[in-house]
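Note to self: keep these together.
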Amino acid sequence: MNIYFLKTHQRSFGTFPLKGDELKAALRTALDIGYRSIDTAQMYGNEAEVGEVLRECTVPRSELCITTKVHPDEFTPERFLPAVQESLKKLRLDQVDVLLLHWPPIDASVVPSLKLLEQAQKLGFTKHIGVSNYTAAMMRTARDAVSVPIVTNQVEFHPLLDQSKLLAAATETGIPLSSYCSVARGEVFKHALFGEIGAGYGKTAAQVVLRWILQKGVPINTMSTKAANIRANFEVMDFTLSSIDMDRIDAMAATGYRIVDKHLVPWAPAWD
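Structure:
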């Protein structure tokens, strides 16, 4: 796994779907609690609010990891770099730490947008590049399409969905996964197993789920507006799930619960 996402950046504060004062309050709380990795996107419509908080933030810039994502509508030579520059303007940054392609192109031809992404890095707009919502086949193509490391493929990842093919592709390609919808937008709480396991560790069901993801080698993105939940989502580094409990949670993949499909996002690819 790329060392970039180890340690500090294993736990990222996600900002979707927050906007306005609600976002700014939650992000300030997250920074106070200790989050140093912040995830946003052009599609979220909240980069400007993130930028306001970053401007007033007292945490040194060198300790922060700021990720944003380019909207597929901008995947043309004429629009890509201006769109990235607009994101930087809104974020009040000269450079982001990670710039992702938010989705594969609708025609699934990933190489042209990857070349544009690589160009943005060469121009200094981002330290690192990555992708999101790529299939295993797309990960293999991406590995060979650019000359610099791809530091992540951010995908839906939680215990109710079997992503073993993507995990295998991550090992094969050297492109680590990172997780969104880490608690399946609350669906995990309908299953008693996570709370039962948590009771044995003095942890909540959510903390068990997040710890399971981390032990799979996948960094997490979590979002909440409640300070107690923001803190609880951060406090998942002080316990380790046993191999028996990991196996019990692994079995939940048979549930087959996927949130992001073509019904929710019409341009979603054909998932593995």
